[in-house]
């Protein structure tokens, strides 16, 4: 997060299997994380970002803030946003395939919203595939509401993107 301590070392428990909890930690993404981030990208997206794209985000984009979610020193998810004035635009939210369905995406997004608020964001926005109802339902839990559509937004199949916004200033 470009020198910010908004997410450094924050630990929480997440349910992995019924009755079983595991501690996950959150911290700023670092350049040396990129190889693991690329693994998560390829498990999560049909058109994954490249290592160079992440390197550019971390080194040259003054608006970019990225966090990783770790378990046992292994990155199991990450999320990013661009913070411009009082608005945060979520760029990515991804969890490794074998960790999905365990409420870890919720924890990751909660941490990203907390970091955005700490950095001064009042509102957040994102685009999500119109077919990705799981993600849309997750975002709705944080107050994201659909406000429009970007026609043909995704380059792989020209699927539309749903534009969602949330006011996050007063969220816990």
H and E string: EEHHEEEHEHEE
Specify the CATH class of the domain at 10-125: Alpha Beta
CATH topology of the domain at 10-125: Aminopeptidase
Number of E-type strands: 8
Strand numbers in spatial order across the main sheet: 1-2-3-4-5-6-8-7
CATH architecture of the domain at 10-125: 3-Layer(aba) Sandwich
Assign a percent range to the helix content.
25-40%
Structural class by SSE content = alpha+beta
The proportion of strand residues reads 35-45%
* Backbone shape: globular
Beginning-to-end CA distance, first to last residue = 21 Å
Q: Low-confidence stretches at least 5 residues in length (pLDDT < 50)?
A: 1-8, 13-20
Q: How many helices does DSSP assign? A: 4
Taking the sheet with the most strands, its summary is: 8 strands, mixed
Gyration radius, rounded: 15 Å
Q: What is the H level of CATH, i.e. the homologous superfamily of the domain at 10-125?
A: Gcn5-related N-acetyltransferase (GNAT)
């Amino acid at each position: 997060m470009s020198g910010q301590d908004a997410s450094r070392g924050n630990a929480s428990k997440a349910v992995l299997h019924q009755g079983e909890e595991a501690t996950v930690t959150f911290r700023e993404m670092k350049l040396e994380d990129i190889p693991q981030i690329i693994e998560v990208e390829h498990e999560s997206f049909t058109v994954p970002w490249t290592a160079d794209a992440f390197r550019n985000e971390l080194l040259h984009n003054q608006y970019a803030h990225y966090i990783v979610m770790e378990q046992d020193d292994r990155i199991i998810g990450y999320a990013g946003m661009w913070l411009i004035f009082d608005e945060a635009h979520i760029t990515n939210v991804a969890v490794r395939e074998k960790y999905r369905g365990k409420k870890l995406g919720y924890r990751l997004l909660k941490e990203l919203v907390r970091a955005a608020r700490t950095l001064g964001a009042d509102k957040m926005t994102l685009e999500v595939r119109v077919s990705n109802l799981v993600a849309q339902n997750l975002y709705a839990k944080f107050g994201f509401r659909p406000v429009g559509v970007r026609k043909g937004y995704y380059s792989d199949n020209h699927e539309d993107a749903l534009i969602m916004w949330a006011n996050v200033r007063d969220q816990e």
